[in-house]
Hints:
Elements: E1 13-19, H1 23-39, H2 43-62, E2 71-77, E3 81-88, H3 107-115, E4 118-123, E5 129-136
Antiparallel strand pairs: 1-2, 2-3, 3-5, 4-5
Helix pairs in contact: 1-2, 2-3
Amino acid sequence: MNxxxxxxMAPVRQFGIQLSATRRGARLAxxxxxxQLRTWDLGAVAENAAHVVAELAANAVTHGRVPGRxxxxxxxxxxxxxxxxxxxxxxxRVPVLRGTGVAESGRGLLLVxxxxxxxxxxxxxxxxKTVWAVIGLP
Length: 138
């Protein structure tokens, strides 16, 4: 007897863009993220996500900037989560986490901690680092 199983996979929506490591690039990251979330009918989390993107992008252009190199914003959404990633080229400057997951320095990361369900830092490939945050969807 031949059994076929059908597995329905939840769609993953993805968006990514490379932006200049300037204040203007950070502002554009926030605006583009909000517009993309509205396109995906995720307006319910757009405000919190906008704050998270703004903080991560501002950190990328302030602390992660290398002259002549851009930063990358990526969004991915499943049925239950939105993942925000900001990648810069200063892998040597990583936010320091305490045992509670709160950053030791910078109020912006305290805001990310408050608005996101999870956040962290991934290294590589050298010289990059990615600061990411996950927000649950209603």
